[in-house]
Amino acid sequence: MRATTLNEPSYLFLAQSGELARRAELARRRPERCDLCPRGCAANRLMGERGFCGAPAEVVVASHNRHDGEEPPISGTRGSGTIFLSHCTMRCVFCQNFPISQKGVGRQVGAVGLAEMMLDLQRRGCHNVNFVTPTHFVHEILAALVLAVEGGFGLPLLWNTSGYESVETLKLLDGIVDIYLPDIKYADNKMAAKYSSAINYVEANRAALREMWRQVGPLVLDDDGIAQRGMIVRHLVLPRGIAGTPDCLDFLAREVSPRVHLSLMSQYFPANRAEEFPEINSQVTRREYKPLASLARKLDFPGWLQPP
Length: 308
Description:
The chain contains eleven helices and ten strands. By secondary structure, the protein is α/β, with parallel strands linked by helices. The chain has a single domain, classed as Aldolase class I (TIM Barrel, Alpha-Beta Barrel).
């Protein structure tokens, strides 16, 4: 393991002190009665049981590659080293990646294979390693990080999540994750249950966003404008106001911070089972998006507007 410097990811200091290995050990037994997400379904994944997410204990990866389509401070000029993890703790009827998230397309690679992917993305010059839909594999990610650091890994870690997180699980990541990239999907639990099969999404999501902000705070960029630490919140506008966008933005401004970077997205299109729900079986229009963009500007969030 190489010596650390003050501008490097804080998990390197935790690795040197032994705290990273301790956190990995704490996480290792959590899938025995799995409570990694707010659903807490208590499946014994270590003995082959599958909970709501359908994930085995060993990490399953759909792909790992350079990704240039994230927000500018994430993709930069050399891309984000994206690792798409299979399965998901939610079941969005409109999910664009449903073969990965709901059908589990991918291959089991284990912590050793995951560490090799992290080191490969570093060798390829990516700015960060970006774990997409990672929550149900926290234990494997931490085990892989221990191995990767021993192999010379030192990129910022990015947690790209639906925002359906347990605060207890997030506390395992304090000082380990450098950049949080969560969603705030809904302002109404009935909508979250109907369209994403997520119980108590609003309470869990809002507690998680507050905890993430506590851990990393506002976005910190290097001299080239590349994110090194901090938080970006994504919100996908849904047709007919179903996401409750004004309430979501109001919460962020009042209870997280008006300094949090917001990515207000309009890229929704009907995918997966959306055609079964006429009210969301259409794209977001400019007429729907424009007043929400005006609200985001009024609240003075830094970040990005992405109109239709």
